[in-house]
Amino acid sequence: MSFSACVLTLYPEMFPGALGLSLAGRALEAGTWSLEAIQIRDFATDRHRTVDDTPAGGGAGMVMRADVLAKAIDHASPEGDLRPRLLMSPRGKPLTQRRVRELAAGPGAVILCGRFEGVDQRVIDARGLEEVSIGDFILSGGEPAALVLLDAVVRLLPGVMGNAVSGEEESFENRLLEHPHYTRPQEFEGREIPVVLISGNHKKIAAWRRAESEALTRARRPDLLENGKTNND
User: Fold this and answer.
1) Which pLDDT tens digit goes with each residue over 96-149?
2) How many other CB atoms are there within 10 angstroms of residue 140's CB atom?
3) What domain range includes position 206?
4) CATH of residue 220
5) What are phi and psi of 229, to 5 degrees?
6) Annotated binding residue at 134?
7) Is 136 annotated as a binding residue?
């Protein structure tokens, strides 16, 4: 069974976007995964296809309506659909490599892309939406975040990466940032490839890479080392 992604958005033309290229694009063409982008406005009931309204209690901006979103979600994810329902939101739980792997091992995902000031809380509660964040910053909408999430998931689907080991030796996979990489030429602007990497001694190479990963993690992401936990956990 292939991974089935459904995105609810006001801008379906943003999909597949970059996901139609490279590894993800080839996997999409091969049927390893599927993508459906649904226009939320199609579920509005007025002639203006209104999907938002002023916030209760006052304030700036507009809020996406619960009734319109509920209809869109119910259409995309009817009763019995086992795919998790995700809402891309800056207040959501940070996306981790562990969650990415969980999603890649499942049947797919239904992803709601918010816009404006946010989404009516009642539809989040009523439809069991899992709020997911890709970082501590604000985007103009959830579409770029959905593309990021799907890219992270699709590359882990069986057969997408040419070398399965590639997905096991990356940043966050082993509670460490990834070690530096080098390739030909041997010398570049006076900088040489570390001698150990061309020694042919695989035990020493592994030890060097581990040491470099630990040093980089201590310098750049010490939080990953605290109490032996990382963003994978």
Assistant:
1) 999 999 999 999 999 999 999 999 999 999 999 999 999 999 999 999 999 999
2) 8
3) 172-228
4) 1.10.1270.20
5) -115, 155
6) yes
7) yes
